[in-house]
Amino acid sequence: MTCKEKLIADHPDWDEKQLEYVLNEECPDARYDVRPITDEYGNSMCGDVNCVRCWNQEVPETNTEKEKNMNTKKTKAQLIEELEASENTVKDLKKQLKDLEQYKVYEDAGTEIKNIHTAFMNAGFTDDQAFELIRISMLTNIANNNAASTFNVNFSGLKKAVKG
Predict the structure, then answer these.
(1) Average pLDDT, integer, range 150-156
(2) Is residue 143 within 8 Å of 136, Cβ to Cβ?
(3) Where are the domains of the chain?
(4) I need a labelling partner for 143 at 20 to 30 A (CA). Which of 63, 85, 102, 135 fits?
(5) CB 164 within 8 A of CB 158
């Protein structure tokens, strides 16, 4: 949070005129624990009025803000609740992983079939003939529970996809 943002947050009741006055007439080092902008020799570059660069500095955390951000001791019930939430998250992630693995099986089988189809087309078969050869081969391999086809292609991924 910049000094300007903090000033606005600290004084929500101020109107724009009051905010502009402070932003134009004061340096933030008077209100917040910030150092004025200095040059490479350590000389202040702050003119104390209309100090835009200083107001755009980040405000360091105060001790009370640090205390708020520190983890406080948790009760046993809170820890059990967090553990159950984490277990549910793990279950959800495992389900998503299983779904993705199943999708990968279908994707691999589809890629295999497309490559075979392309090979048949390149060999001179028509689109319908290539499709029918693949269909017959798949049905035969699935029916015979055979992982390798007569085309020497592994249809095990497709078998898994079809059998579920």
Answers:
(1) 47
(2) no
(3) 3-69, 100-163
(4) 102
(5) no
The CA–CA distances, whole Å, from 154 to 35, 118, 143, 158 equal 70, 16, 15, 9
**Could you tell me if 2 and 9 are in contact, meaning their C-beta atoms sit under 8 angstroms apart?**
no
Q: How much is the pTM?
A: 0.34
Amino acid letter at 136? I
Of 119, 104, 109, nearest to 156 by C-alpha is: 109
- Is the separation of the CB atoms in 29 and 54 below 8 Å? yes
Residue 148 pLDDT > 50, yes or no?
Answer: no
Calculated CA dihedral for residues 154, 160, 161, 162, nearest 10 degrees: 100
Backbone phi, psi, residue 154, to 5°: -80, 115
Residue 124 tokens, joined: 């001179």
Q: Could you tell me the pLDDT band of residue 94, with boundaries at 50, 70 and 90?
A: very high
DSSP code for 43: -
Which one-letter amino acid corresponds to residue 134?
I
The span from the CA of 109 to the CA of 156, in Å, is 8
The mean per-residue pLDDT over the stretch 100-115 comes to: 86
